[in-house]
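To illustrate the input format used throughout this study, we show a single complete record. The first block contains the structure-token representation of the backbone; no residue identities are included at this stage. The design step must infer an amino acid for every position from geometry alone.
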């Protein structure tokens, strides 16, 4: 699916492409992530820790590349200037080629097929993927500032999505985003990635907040900044508070029952160990859910 998406976006291998020469932060970030993933993957394979190797390439493929990078670059490819589009298409194709290399030990048949399908200009590759040299990038492709910046954007979007989910904001609804106590560096990051944030977090009217928090807003903290989402016109605040309070009361009742059961020595002595462990897991899950609900209620109260 990722390869199909890349092809539909007009991305293809470019002869002479230099991954170290990218100008856009998002492209420097993903290229650095390729190099970091290769180092983790190679080290794990050399140490015979194949589970760690599989996890490293899975996390990069599924989350970093598919979940984030391909989404980040859609606005650039759709509406960026010609130079930004050309660099992003070339970088995307290069990253996908490297991904096929790194995935090959785990998915040999799919990656070999895609390797041939994605050959430059439809010409056959110089060698099958199984015979191609294992990539090694060294430290030249790392870019700590780009990594820090894009990591912050990922955490920003994830925080907004989590708040929207907790507050039952309709998926299609768009809200404003106010940033309280944000530094100039943070505001510059937001401005540089405004289109990405607006698209992926479904927010409009992004602006700093100098005055009081608007009534009916929910808040979340990200580093030094407080993210403020005005929801008074999007959800029924009173109804949402009542729903959260009802859910909290229900889960508190479940916790009391589980704690009473696990505090009963007869139950612990007679029940199979698997049943005891299941109840302990349910108790931990309930406590985690309760903490999230209380956090959500606190956000509404703070607004």
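Output of the design step:
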């Amino acid at each position: 699916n990722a390869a199909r998406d890349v092809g539909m976006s007009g991305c293809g291998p470019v002869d002479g492409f230099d991954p170290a020469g990218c100008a856009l932060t998002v492209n420097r970030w993903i290229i650095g992530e390729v190099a970091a993933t290769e180092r983790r993957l190679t080290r794990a394979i050399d140490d015979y820790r194949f589970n760690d190797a599989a996890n490293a390439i899975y996390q990069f493929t599924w989350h970093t590349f598919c979940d984030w990078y391909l989404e980040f670059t859609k606005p650039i490819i759709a509406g960026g200037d010609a130079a930004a589009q050309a660099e992003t298409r070339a970088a995307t194709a290069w990253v996908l080629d490297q991904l096929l290399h790194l995935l090959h030990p785990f998915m040999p048949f799919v990656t070999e097929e895609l390797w041939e399908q994605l050959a430059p200009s439809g010409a056959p590759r110089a060698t099958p993927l199984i015979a191609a040299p294992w990539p090694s990038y060294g430290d030249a492709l790392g870019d700590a500032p780009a990594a820090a910046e894009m990591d912050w954007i990922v955490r920003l979007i994830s925080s907004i999505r989590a708040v929207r989910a907790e507050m039952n904001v309709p998926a299609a609804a768009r809200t404003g985003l106010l940033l309280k106590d944000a530094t100039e560096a943070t505001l510059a990051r937001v401005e540089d990635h405004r289109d990405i944030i607006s698209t992926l977090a479904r927010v409009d009217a992004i602006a700093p907040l100098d005055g009081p928090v608007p009534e009916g807003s929910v808040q979340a903290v990200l580093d030094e900044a407080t993210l403020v989402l005005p929801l008074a016109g999007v959800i029924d605040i009173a109804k949402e508070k009542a729903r959260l309070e009802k859910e909290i009361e229900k889960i508190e009742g479940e916790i009391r029952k589980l704690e009473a059961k696990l505090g009963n020595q007869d139950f612990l002595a007679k029940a199979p160990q698997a049943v005891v462990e299941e109840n302990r897991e349910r108790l931990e899950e309930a406590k985690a859910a309760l903490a999230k609900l209380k956090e959500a209620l606190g956000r509404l109260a703070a607004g």
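Structural context for interpreting the output: The first helix runs from residue 2 to 8. The mean pLDDT is 90.
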